[in-house]
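A brief tutorial aside. Many learners find it easier to grasp structure tokens once they have seen a single protein encoded end to end. The record that follows does exactly this for enoyl-CoA hydratase. Read the sequence first, then the structure, and try to relate runs of similar tokens to stretches of the chain.
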Amino acid sequence: MTAYENILVETHGKVGLIRLNRPQALNALSTPLFIDLAQALDAFQADDGIGCIVLTGSPKAFAAGADIKEMKDLSFMDVYFQDFCNTGWTHVTTIRKPVIAAVAGYALGGGCELAMMCDFIIAADNAKFGQPEINLGTMPGAGGSQRLTRAVGKAKAMEMCLTGRQMDAAEAERAGLVSRIVPLADLEAEALKAAEKIASLSLPVTMMVKEAVNAAFETTLAEGVRFERRLFHSTFAILDRKEGMAAFAEKRPANFINR
Ligand code: CAA
């Protein structure tokens, strides 16, 4: 397996685990980190043996945001020409297999944005989410003002982006930002368990489910429902759909072959 400087990569059966690994900077998101992350995500996307990906950090920080030391001397022309916060940053949203964010500690700024780009977030009880860019004289640049607002509504998103206030795990769960909270010591095992369940199912269908749920954020209800129904119909062309229903009728576990 490729060795990276800013991340650690493992496989657990059919699950690919990526751990952000810049402990000296609380996993601050630097350009080299995003290059590593994109490469690792693409490798798992291309690997037929992988059905789900978990993205995690350390017990202290998922990621404390964009690397402020890397950013501090950039000019408007630098960030504009690089399209900073797009190239590399949003790569995870191009991954078609399900991606779970397992968040412990700080998920601030770009860290919160990266977690929200994943398909769902499982939070440790010490997780803290925030968009503190306002304290630096700037603002969210990787979707924070948009994804946080869709996740938790205008009132909380506006307050968090305007004041930099952090949400703890309990508030994040109440607000719908995270799917559930688990004790810090169980975070990785719980995220892997959810990922193993997803990876044991039919990959083409889990990919379609991801597409359908994501469509809810991009389209009208009528169009979204129509899109979902067409995807549902298309599962009837998949051997795994036949196998899943046959296995139910025959009272045996299904054996999905991703076809
Ligand atoms: N960028 C670069 N380095 C960072 C960093 C960041 N975002 N966050 C933490 N670090 C570094 C610190 O500079 C420190 O390094 P040194 O030991 O070399 O000084 C090390 O990580 C440990 O950090 P602290 O000593 O600050 O740790 P703490 O426990 O006292 O505080 C914290 C933790 C509250 C998260 C604090 O580190 C902090 O406020 N970090 C910045 C958070 C932030 O503003 N994030 C938003 C960034 S902007 C952004 O993300 C833009 C966007 O939308 C794309």
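Self-check: The chain has two domains: 7-199, 202-250. If you spotted this yourself, you are ready for the next section.
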